[in-house]
């Protein structure tokens, strides 16, 4: 479980996070949603340690990373996998080398053991026989799969996904969502997904945290979202008039 | 003024991190060799062409001047080309060429990695990014630039010989008599000092500019240009102080 308590973050005079507290449960897909500029990405970057919060604590199964220096955080970072919005694959490395990189850097496995693990992970994301391709030769969906394979290669306890569906067609987006959900359950990970894709919310949102103007506005499950009838969350979920009318006329 | 000190502080902090203890030395060596190959092999053709012609032009220009002063023997040209190439032309011209080619490449590569979140990806894995991405580039540059400068000196001297023969200014025997005459190993020492300092300067400034870029494609272009301009200026200042202090 990951807990964030009263996280605040300013950039100059701009207060981006105004004191967010939330918990993200083990074995579940925990979604952070909100409008652009609501603080989703900053929250995620604070959680993984790319940004330092000005105030507040971040607990990974009780371990407070805000108190740790670079070296102390290393152990926790080995337990983290992350899928980036733009995948962040290393351009100069092949698919195999990308997935293998954490193994090369942090383990003493033999070449055969590493290759076996890489092939297992690529197979798990349904990408066999792409080992020697470069990221530039892959489609958007394939890059996301490689990103997931790289994120899970070290058997992480925590998986973070920043806009995993951005730039994908709706069908591929759903496939990626389901892949993340399956992996989360399979490895019993704590998965935190930053998104504003409503298909993801409805499809895999075991727990949903809605941020608005740097504050946590709402927290619940994807089923509970459908019971919302007004307010900021309603406007966000049912953004168009068409959807609003559809929701108001629907019976649940 | 405050911004200059801010940048200097940022640069020194980054350099400190770049040379901190590596997570896995084998990976760093591998990366250093890869960088050395990129910098060395990739830059060899341009260094070879430019230094050969600089040696040739030096020989022709001195021959042109010596002709009007009939008291100066033509074999001196070999000596002048050698000394000029070793002390100034080979290290300085090579370094400026490398600042344009390698420096801009380093800055844009790191800038692109920063913008595309590749550096963040390394950091989340627990990699010490300055040490892994910057350290090997600087180490490779400090090793390879002196090698390129030595090649540039050799080719410059050969270029001077070729141009002299082509113009009929001197014979092969005369030219190489000049090349060997009054050879001082201290000149080579100064050349190597310059080459090492230039290698460090151009790679470290380019790494700093690329690593700290913020924004998008426009900023990457700007940082690449700034890397070339700033490293060229700093190298010329370093060049002056080396000459002033060691000659």
Q: What is the correct CATH architecture of the domain at 1-79 and 159-169 and 187-252 in chain A?
A: 3-Layer(aba) Sandwich
* Distance between the first and last residues' Cα of chain A: 32 Å
As a whole number of angstroms, the C-alpha radius of gyration of chain B is: 21 Å
Overall structural domain count of chain B: 1
User: How do the SSEs of chain B run, as a string of H and E?
Assistant: HHHHHHHH
Topology as H/E string of chain A? Answer: EEEHEEHEHHHEHEHEEHHH
Secondary-structure content class of chain B: mainly alpha
Strand ordering within the main sheet of chain A:
6-7-8-3-9-10
Largest sheet properties of chain A: 6 strands, mixed
Oligomeric nature of the chains? heterodimer
Query: What is the general shape of chain A?
Result: globular
What percentage of amino acids of chain A are in beta strands? 15-25%
Unreliable residue stretches of chain A: none
Q: Could you report the average pLDDT of chain B, rounded to the nearest whole number?
A: 93
Q: Please state roughly what percent of the residues of chain B sit in beta strands, choosing from under 5%, 5-15%, 15-25%, 25-35%, 35-45% or over 45%.
A: under 5%
